[in-house]
Amino acid sequence: MKRAIIIVLDSVGIGELPDAAAYGDAGSNTLGNIAKAMKHEPWFKLDNMISLGLSHIDGVEELEKPEKVHGAMARMGELSKGKDTTTGHWEIAGLVLDRPFPTYPDGFPKEIMDAFEKAIGTKTLGNCVASGTEIIARLGEEHMKTGYPIVYTSADSVFQIAAHEEIIPIERLYEMCQIARNMLTGEHAVGRVIARPFLGQPGSFKRTDRRRDFSLKPIKKTVLEYAKEQGFEVRGVGKIEDIFAGEGITHAVHIHDNMDGVDQTLNWMKDDFSGILFTNLVDFDMVYGHRNNVEGYARALVDFDKRLPEIMSAMKDEDILFITADHGCDPTTESTDHSREYTPLLVYGKPVKAGVNLHTRKSFSDIAATVAQYLGIKAEIKGESFLDLILKS
């Protein structure tokens, strides 16, 4: 009963890609710069990921390198154009984008906002580039007085709607997001429309965990869809269901935070099923990376690392674990946006040879190709499988 368990440490990049400067990300190195900033902190230890080969990945220089490791490792390049969540996850699942999703550094065009306001029956606030915490601090009080939702974007291809849950009920916020999702097609087909609910009073607003992403449906089949069609289960933990707009997902559970994501992953690992268990742990990105919280990000890495032995112990004989990321979000730089970076890959399981260094792979989609080959899924997807390089003979 073979299973591929994919855990995405959202935004844990490991160094700038060759084209990073074109994205304004020269010098970004999420893991490396955090490790450098935390090198004198005795609590900053990633011993379990290091034991799988993290510090042996090409370009990872700030961590101790043990002679012997228990997993296979690689540095993953990204072929798709972009540096956002949807692009990264789609490529992990075998879909490479030839052109990036549209972005709006000057806010959304008047024709889009006019049509959206007409459709929802109210005016809006914002329509600018901003961080999520900054925009509600700046416009939250006006929102509470007027009842107008706050619309904003970022360097990523997102149309975000923030609303106080006591002003605009959560289901109405979701409805507004679905209206926007239905409108944003063609040249304005943003990667995600995101509901950003919050609570509190002026001066102490706090975003809640009822965020929801309304993604485009994948433009081609991913390994998830092929797996589902061929009788495998595909279980998504966290925002996986949202990222793929439900396509190829047989079971889904949303989570409150990273540790809840680990708990839900462990719960499903207890079940007997063949297929793919795909988890996204978003706190690295959403809670710490976008807020340039270096210590918080570091502690989140340590928290996951401490839980890794539980995941490894829960693995069944034919399970293969893939730990990776979807982009960077370096909290040590001035930017609060995603960064165009290589991502790590750690592979572990009883079928996997220890100590295999795959060095630098051309595409995240090599993960999908490897999963497809291991599970025996017939799929027309991008990527080159490295299964034969890591399997025990």
Characterization of this structure:
This protein is an alpha/beta fold and 393 residues long. The chain folds into two domains: 3-99 and 218-390, Alkaline Phosphatase, subunit A (3-Layer(aba) Sandwich), CATH 3.40.720.10; 110-215, Phosphopentomutase (Alpha-Beta Plaits). 32% of the residues lie in helices and 19% in strands. It contains 13 helices and 14 strands. The chain has helices at 30-37, 47-52, 85-92, 110-120, 132-146, 170-183, 223-229, 240-243, 258-269, 283-289, 294-314, 366-375, 387-390, and strands at residues 3-9, 72-76, 125-129, 150-153, 158-164, 192-199, 206-207, 212-215, 233-237, 251-253, 275-281, 319-324, 343-348, 357-361. An eight-stranded mixed β-sheet has the order 10-9-11-1-12-13-2-14, sandwiched between helices. Strands 3, 4, 5, 6, 7 and 8 form a six-stranded mixed β-sheet that branches. Helix 4 (110-120) crosses helix 6 (170-183) and helix 9 runs parallel beside helix 11. The longest helix has 21 residues, at 294-314. The two termini are 19 Å apart.
